[in-house]
Structure to design on (292 residues):
């Protein structure tokens, strides 16, 4: 099933009276990039958690955040580095004497130096914490995946409809082609009749010119290739594996065929069709940029 690269998942749990949350967000990215923010001292979990995420996400920038969110029985603690505070006080006194400065070095002034304070995380058994984090991340990834699948289904539906429009416009061009040749023949014949008057018109030469024009403006091969690309598109959007990059490449090829049709077909009606085709393909390409 097609999946979007955009999604969100979150799970929370309480371990030994401390609440822990795991959040996962994903956005578009050409490759897979996993960014993790873990509580201090828990970086050893990073690789294992990345493997869990990689099993569900093949592309996208994925941001993972695991954090304490408080609890009734345990909370963060404020710690004071007394040694560093004394050093600050001593250095400031020396500077005061040296520069003959007035004023007092009080607690409020020392409190402005953030380095002497640190916040300690709640105390939780390490193994219990690790088990809880793994469980939360697995759950958050499941939530993320469901959201990505749901959005992917909507993207797929929209793109299929637009490719169907491409097919319809393609049919209009195919039906228009014989008339383009006939209109050119009639215009050329009328122009020559106006130039030579009652003189005999070399119909053979006129037909030769018509054949040259028809060959130069023939877009049958481009229409056949465009139809083949549409069939490949239909098959890809139904595939189980990630197809975002393949769809992006296929749309580039479809765009090239449409550009060639526009440059070869010397006809105002076909030019209008080409503009419509380009508009639909551009909208599909915008959607494909979000497909995994």
């Amino acid at each position: 099933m097609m999946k979007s690269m955009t999604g969100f998942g979150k799970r929370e749990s309480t371990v030994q009276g401390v609440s822990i949350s795991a959040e996962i967000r994903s956005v578009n990215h050409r490759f897979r990039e996993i960014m993790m923010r873990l509580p201090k001292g828990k970086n050893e979990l990073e690789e294992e958690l990345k493997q869990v995420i990689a099993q569900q996400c093949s592309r996208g920038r994925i941001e993972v955040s695991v954090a304490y969110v408080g609890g009734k029985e345990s909370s963060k603690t404020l710690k004071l580095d007394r040694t560093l505070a004394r050093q600050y006080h001593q250095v400031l006194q020396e500077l005061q004497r040296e520069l003959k400065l007035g004023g007092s070095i009080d607690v409020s002034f020392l409190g402005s130096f953030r380095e002497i304070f640190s916040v300690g995380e709640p105390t939780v058994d390490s193994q219990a914490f690790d088990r809880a984090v793994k469980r939360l991340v697995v759950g958050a990834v499941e939530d993320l995946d469901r959201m990505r699948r749901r959005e992917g289904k909507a993207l797929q539906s929209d793109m299929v409809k637009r490719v169907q429009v491409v097919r319809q416009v393609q049919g209009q061009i195919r039906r228009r082609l014989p008339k383009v040749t006939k209109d050119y023949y009639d215009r050329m014949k009328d122009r020559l009749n106006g130039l030579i008057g009652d003189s005999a018109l070399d119909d053979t030469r006129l037909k030769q010119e018509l054949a040259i024009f028809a060959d130069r403006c023939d877009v049958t091969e481009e229409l056949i290739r465009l139809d083949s690309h549409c069939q490949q598109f239909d098959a890809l959007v139904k595939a189980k594996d990630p197809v975002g990059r393949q769809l992006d490449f296929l749309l580039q090829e479809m765009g090239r065929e449409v550009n060639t049709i526009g440059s070869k077909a010397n006809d105002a009606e076909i030019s209008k069709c080409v503009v419509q085709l380009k508009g639909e393909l551009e909208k599909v390409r915008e959607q494909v940029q979000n497909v995994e």
Q: What stands out?
A: The chain has three domains: 7-73+124-149, 77-120, 152-288. DSSP finds eight helices and six strands in the chain. The mean pLDDT is 85.
